[in-house]
Amino acid sequence: MAKADKTKQAAKPKAVSSAVPDEEDLSEYYLGVFQYPLAALLFAIGVWVVFFPSPEVGKYVLPVLIQMAQSCQDIVDATGLVPASMRPDKEITVWSAIPLSIFMFFGILIGQTTITRLVSKYAGEEATKFGECMGRVLYYGPMFFVALAVIDLEDIWPNLDNCWVKTGVIPQTIEVQAYYVFEMSYYIGGIFVHIFLDERLSDFYIMLLHHGATVALIMYSYMEHFHRIGLLVLMVHDVSDIFLDSAKCFHYVKIEILSTVTFVNLIVSWILYRLYFYPFYILENVFVSALEIIENPPKSWTFYRILLGFLQILHIYWFYLILKVAQNAVFAGGLRDVRDSGDGETSETKKKD
Hints:
The structure is a single chain. The protein is mostly helical. The chain has 12 helices and no strands. Helix 5 packs across helix 6 (97-123), helix 7 (127-154) runs antiparallel to helix 10 and helix 9 runs antiparallel to helix 12 (301-331).
């Protein structure tokens, strides 16, 4: 018996030594001599995504979205609850967002749970947050390129005035319909994910308001045929979200060198897309050029523009939080979501959509 006890005691150090080290930065532990080449490669990919993205990438994903959206429309048609008169000019209606958003919710739930279990060994207590962020990366990544593909098909860049030519007359293509319904369903499902699944941060209600405003904007622009400007609005939001959640994922598994590089890409994309392109191109076009082209705007046109302006206020507020994170990284020695509760009892880190 004594000999067996000694054998068990001798085995214990091996179990400890095989565990992930309890350190703040495990970049060298995971990546070794490859950490700097990988960081350079990640930065180069970020530069490509921000400055030279290709619409051709999204065209490979579009057929899948179209098939899924049409299948959800078939489900709606099979119920007989929506008469044909309520879908006069669209193959895919807003009603298809009902089953699709349900699928989205449970898909997000299953995906986040699976990812959390897979990384629990490496992320520890941060595994749940990692699952939330990685789920969003896997969505926003493809959807950014899908948005570019649809924008390319609609021919609205760089001439944004094409967004308003024959507004309400030009029928929406099947690509526009599928993309719009997918985004609408994601944000509808995202409201329930935000309320029931995600951990709560200090800006919980601001995020909830953001989700609600986004759904309203998507639905309004889809039904009023303002889909072309809507495509641009959705695109500028998706690109920054890729880097935001990717940076958090690397941080949660303590690969800080990749987290820092991705965070730099986030700042660049946020400035370029949300603080420059959105206000000086999209909002300028909505508030100035559109009024010169649209002859009889709908009565709710003013409300639509107010919501678009509200999004820019959120962009500035969130960029302030991003700068605070950067300040902490420089002076406090690490990236940390400033929206986390400061009492240490709850660890809440979720990203801004």
